[in-house]
Model the fold of this input.
Amino acid sequence: MMDLVKLWIITGSREFETSKRSLENVTKKGIEFINENVTKIDLQNKIVRTSYRRLHYDYLIIALGVELAPEQIPGLKENSLVLYDLNDVPKIRDTIRQLKSGKIAMAITGLPYKCPPAPYEAALLIRSVLEEAGTSSSIQMDFYSPTPITLPAGGPQISEDILQILKSKNIEFHGNHKTVSVEQNKIKFESGEADFDVLITVPPHKAPFVVVDCGLAQPGKFIEVDRSCKTKHDRVYAIGDVNQIMVTDKLAVPKAGIFAEGEGITVARNIASQIKKEQESSTFDGKGGCYLETGKRAAGYIRVDMYADPSPVTELKSPSPDYFSEKEKFEKERLEKWL
Ligand SMILES: Cc1cc2nc3c(=O)[nH]c(=O)nc-3n(C[C@H](O)[C@H](O)[C@H](O)COP(=O)(O)OP(=O)(O)OC[C@H]3O[C@@H](n4cnc5c(N)ncnc54)[C@H](O)[C@@H]3O)c2cc1C
Done:
């Protein structure tokens, strides 16, 4: 199941059972699918170990994503519903419908996190569910983030645009709120605290253990690569959420599926060139975009060009039913192409 479907499960327009596809479908493309846990990456001997076997590689592309790390914030797992955890998503759907009045708080509790606009999209969709349920006017919504503006990766203008959309839906944004712990009905920040009836969190993320264990990522970091996605080890690449590609000394490529796809294509082309003994010519272009659903089958579109000259460009196209239809098409096309 694509992650974006999690938000549709919250709105009730989708069920997990009818949204998943088997990764085994990649076998149709002549790719062997081994559904086993990777337990060790042995870079010296070019071997990947799984629970049941050892696989020798000539080229290794690491695409293990991130692990959610709610344990890094004391009390978070026990006292909040985790937006990015598939187990909690149906609970969020049911809880917001049962709530008749009170306070819903949402908090981003670690940086970086995947799909930077997704938590705002979730907030807007939750507001829209409350409107449909007729409870919206008696439910306060607060959004806490450690960042000063809503979307630093998108820059000040997009952040302001998103802030205004949130305001128009009566969702109060509180920047510079770094979460340190969560208790029953109380979230504590480095400075101050707030109470809530329901707390929905984006937990801290970390690199999967196997990539830290083999030294590809430093503890607390992701695998650092440049636009070629090559690691320091010969013929070993890292794509998608597991990597970190710095664009400027402060700005990294956001963790998003659209960029994981672009990086994958870059690496595939360059490996093909190596095998054919041709010049490697592909570079990750940093172009992409994602949809920002605002409720009632409307969405905005955030267009991104990370390597535009002289500096990254992002723009938010105003919410409309057309972008919502494009989002649905985006999912359909990817599933058809990949699986
Ligand atoms: C709510 C939400 C909405 C989103 N919406 C969008 C969107 O609209 N557009 C967009 O571009 N992006 C979106 N994203 C982000 C997008 O889903 C991710 O950036 C993308 O999935 C990253 O792909 P990946 O292949 O790097 O990692 P993943 O998709 O996380 O895949 C990694 C895989 O590796 C597996 N794995 C990890 N460790 C091991 C191990 N030791 N052994 C075996 N397997 C292992 C995992 O189980 C997983 O299947 C959204 C994310 C969320 C949470």
